[in-house]
Design brief:
The chain has two domains: 85 residues, Dna Ligase, domain 1, CATH 3.30.1490; 134 residues, D-amino Acid Aminotransferase, Chain A, domain 1, CATH 3.30.470.20. A six-stranded antiparallel sheet has the order 1-6-2-3-4-5, with helices on one face. Strands 7, 8, 9, 10, 11 and 12 form a six-stranded antiparallel sheet that branches. It is globular. The chain is built from six helices and twelve strands. The chain is 30% helix and 31% strand. The longest helix is centred in the C-terminal third of the chain and has 25 residues. A hairpin with a 2-residue loop joins strand 7 and strand 8. The model has no long low-confidence stretch (mean pLDDT 96). By secondary structure, the chain is α+β, with helices and mostly antiparallel strands. Bound molecules: adenosine-5'-triphosphate (ATP) and magnesium ion. The site of adenosine-5'-triphosphate has 23 residues, from strand 2, strand 6, strand 11 and strand 12. Adenosine-5'-triphosphate binds next to strand 2, strand 6, strand 11 and strand 12.
Length: 231
Amino acid sequence: MRSKPLRRLIPETVRYDRARLIKMLNRYAMVYVKPETGTHGKGVMRVAQDGRNYRYQLGKQPRVFRSYGDLANDLAKRVKGRRYLIQRGIHLLKHNGRAFDLRVMAQLNPSKKWETTGIIGRVAAPRKIVTNYHDGGTLVQARRLLSGHMGKSATSSTIRRLEGVGVLAGQAMRNRYSGITEIGVDIGLDRSLTPWIIEVNTSPDPYIFRKLPDPSVFRKIRRYQQAYGRK
Ligand SMILES: Nc1ncnc2c1ncn2[C@@H]1O[C@H](COP(=O)(O)OP(=O)(O)OP(=O)(O)O)[C@@H](O)[C@H]1O
Ligand SMILES: [Mg+2]
């Protein structure tokens, strides 16, 4: 949030509580409620207001409520005293009817400069609201996903822009946490092709990049990790 160019790309995110949820729903109509310290998309919920009804989805199961009170009571059982966040929901672009986002890997390179070393697309399993590979998501080349929504040259410039966001996010994170040498940024594009930073992971999984046809991407990621002593 302290980085001016990045701030605009971060969807409004607040700590979960009952009163803030209704405010955020009034503002955005669709929000994500997720554990503050989650992994693999576990516990991530999509909450929406449509007309007079409220609904949320966890896993593949949508639930509908007739009032905000009913929704909030049900959510309270799931949240149960743990810390959750509420984040403006992004209407992610789709590929064959499934939502996708992109994982951008940025690393401090051996000459101590931030470099984006890999980008890979993650497509949600049918009817799921998370794209995580460990939650049934499929890994697909970013270029392939983007080219379904824009021409060739726009695809290339979007990829360059995402690479730039990776570098800025790496610098911003290291400014604040000096031990950081790599990050994985989850970036979603909405229907107007605006990129949004959904989260930044500080111990990103390098192995998803083995799924890319070009083996040099994974090789470089590992080489950089080893340069900083990551096993
Ligand atoms: N605000 C949002 N708008 C749209 N989709 C979202 C939003 N927040 C999360 N998602 C979807 O849910 C997925 C998982 O959410 P997120 O990356 O925040 O948590 P996580 O991967 O479970 O956590 P962590 O990586 O910290 O273990 C995202 O990759 C994205 O597909
Ligand atoms: Mg994530």
